[in-house]
Amino acid sequence: MKKLIILTGAGISAESGLKTFRDSDGLWEGYDIEEVATPQGWRKNPALVQEFYNMRRKSVLEAQPNAAHHALVELENKYDVTIITQNIDDLHERAGSGKVEHLHGVIIRSQSDIDPTLTYPIDGWELKFGQLCELGSQLRPHVVWFGEDVPMIETAAKLCSEADIFMLIGTSLAVYPAAGLINYVPNYSPKYIIDPNIPKVRESALVHKIEAKATIGVPQVVAKLLAD
Ligand code: APR
């Protein structure tokens, strides 16, 4: 089975009603990244950070996977598919995708403030400041903040280096190290980029740009890959 590696960003969940970060009216508009998405912000005002992620968690729980998430699941009939997502929602899993690696964590789990490898499911949408893990440390959202290491990056880079086919869906490629992953994909492997606003990538005859929203572009590419 050919290895198909798919890197997704906020754009794939936009049509599920979840805001992207850098489009106009993006998620960061109205929020100071330093305040809500850095370790310093957390130390300064943990209650505010919890509130911000509680609201996002509520939106995620209310959202449903869309046609793009569902189409990717069909690829598993023919390919060895791994999805690497920058998204902290769980819409790929809820659509039924088997292998999903979360580069930036997942909002429906919490983690220990002192040991990020200790993670726990959150019951419902609310994680309150003051809630402790079983070892007594403060719980925070299981999300990678700006300035923090991305523990999954080496696994992701290795997966990309083994890709026979690569897809990039709904990401501006503005945030490293995730944005650098495409450079690990072999030159000879076809790359499909689906985004209404195609990000800058190294040009090649094997780069196919599908300038479309995910719910239109992804099913088209999936149909082609299943027919090939
Ligand atoms: N379908 C597909 N793509 C879309 C759609 C859509 N309906 N709507 C918007 N997009 C595209 C935009 O054109 C843009 O290229 O999705 C991309 C969203 O880019 P960002 O908002 O920068 O999101 P992302 O690339 O996932 O951000 C990366 O930045 O803030 C951090 O940790 C956060 O994981 C996030 C990371």
From TrEMBL:
Q: Which residues form the Deacetylase sirtuin-type domain?
A: 1-228
Superkingdom of source: Bacteria
Tell me its EC number(s), please: 2.3.1.286
UniProt keywords, alphabetically: Acyltransferase, NAD, Transferase
Q: Under the GO molecular function aspect, what terms does this record hold?
A: NAD-dependent protein lysine deacetylase activity
UniProt feature coiled coil, ranges: none
UniProt keyword Lipoprotein present: no
Any one Pfam family match given in the protein's UniProt record, by short name: SIR2
Q: Does the keyword Transmembrane apply?
A: no
- Fetch the PANTHER family from UniProt: NAD-DEPENDENT PROTEIN DEACYLASE, NAD-DEPENDENT PROTEIN DEACYLASE SIRTUIN-5, MITOCHONDRIAL-RELATED
How is this protein named in the record?
A: protein acetyllysine N-acetyltransferase
Q: Give the species this sequence originates from.
A: Mucilaginibacter terrae
